[in-house]
Design a protein that fits this description.
single chain, alpha/beta, six-stranded mixed β-sheet, 10% strand, elongated
Length: 603
Amino acid sequence: MRHHAPSTPPSPANAGTPRSDSATLKRLFPYLWQYKWRVMAALLFMVGAKLANVGVPLLLKELIDTMSFKPSDPTAVLVVPVSLLLVYGVLRLSASAFTELRELVFAKATQGAARQIALETFQHLHGLSLRFHLERQTGGMTRDIERGVRGIESLISYSLYSIVPTLIEVALVLSILAVKFDVWFAGITLLALAIYIVFTVSVTEWRTHFRRQANEFDSAAHTKAVDSLLNYETVKYFSNEGFEAQRYDTSLDQLRRARLKSQTSLSLLNTGQQLIIAIALVTMLWRATVGVVEGRMTLGDLVMINAFMIQLYIPLNFLGVLYREIKQSLTDLDRMFSLLEKEREVADDPGAPDLQVSGPPTVRFESVVFAYEPAREILHGISFEIPAGKTVAVVGPSGSGKSTLARLLFRFYDVGSGHITIDGQDIRRVTQHSVRRALGIVPQDTVLFNDTVRYNIAYGRTDASAHEVEQAARAAHIHDFIVATPKGYDTMVGERGLKLSGGEKQRVAIARTLLKNPPIVIFDEATSALDSANERAIQGELQSAAHNKTTLVIAHRLSTVVDAHEILVLDAGRIVERGSHAALLALNGRYAQMWALQQSSEV
């Protein structure tokens, strides 16, 4: 029995409530500030683009006013408009050129920050304890990372490329209207913008609930789909395809309803925005028309004001979408930062040295106490030693804590009290990487990557040559099987290695461990899933893999451990017997009973 029940894990710094938007932006800022020269250059290009954009209506006014009268010099009729048209074209081109330069310069900062945060999150997830990964929902978590990376790009795109430029343009236009005309033009524009922004933000905040619901249902549907497909065989065993489809459809229906509500509220938002814009435009053009009629303004002024309003309100049409997307991007980014800030339950001491091992080391468990849950202790003061180059076996009933010993030795968890040492070095005082580098394991359930046989064997030492991979395969007696397949070492093993039989997967695991060539080897019930014939066939490879190595064998079948230097009988987290196979049989105790029972069942 596998003890996967969690104890109380450390809480992340932001557990409970999500951080504020400003806190999320503050958390993102250092990643962008690494590209500070690009940020400043992009801001300069953005200001240049907006100055050119605002200059277009001003030049359009001059062009129209120039064409509204006939000068005494005939050449002026041609020269002045042509020169103005040329400048008009240059301004239009400049606005586009500055915009493209801004995006080109800032693209490296955006993609660089997204890449760095995604990589840090991925590395951090690999650094979290086994407890976290046993509790996670893979589909939802990968969705959070995907959305977070996309959120960085969206946040920067919408804020730097849309919101900030629009604010700069609004400030420039208001200044021009206030200086060139009466204050009412600036006042009407400012009032309309204020009403527009308040309405947009209010309705968008109300709509955010529907968007958040849609995202939750989207993650739930994705999680159900991934979980169901990963457990394809189990679904087939119990003929539950219909049940799985029903669960998935329930999530999809919830997602559909949430998205319909989101779309309905979006239509309301767009209608309200257009109404505000229409009233503001009509009011501004009415005042401008009156000014032209009264002679206070020219026809060019009327055209300029109309052009200004169009330039302002076209980007504002998307303010609701932009605000919603920015809010959503901040939410998605916060979720990814929350993953990044999950505290490591098992962490190296600051400045911890590497484990120093020369040759097969001695491994000691000294009064080890451990519990997955505080209320249920698994190991009660376990003490034993695996001498250098020797084999110690641990046997006992399911649930006695055998596999927990391997997890603790790999430091997937830290012991509650006591010590585990390798050549006298407490594994908590050295780096986890160096400890795991010294360990190799052939697990009970070998999980392979959905890649080639070569890739899976070479995973034991990723820099191994093809010749070394083949040597390891020969030593594990799987080379002949591999080369007999049509694609040889390039044969795909399928999801979790499901295209291979149990024995073939175990031999790949043995080859992988032989290639790694660690000084300490663990066999965690490595043959329990095999039939007797395959078990006997693989036993020789296991003994070869354990040659001249410090070996811990965790076994249920006693016939696989009779040659061990010492056998420990574990029951309910305590060592109840220990000794060689012959000595334990002579005791006529728990081990002898287990031996007799297994022997009779095999007859």
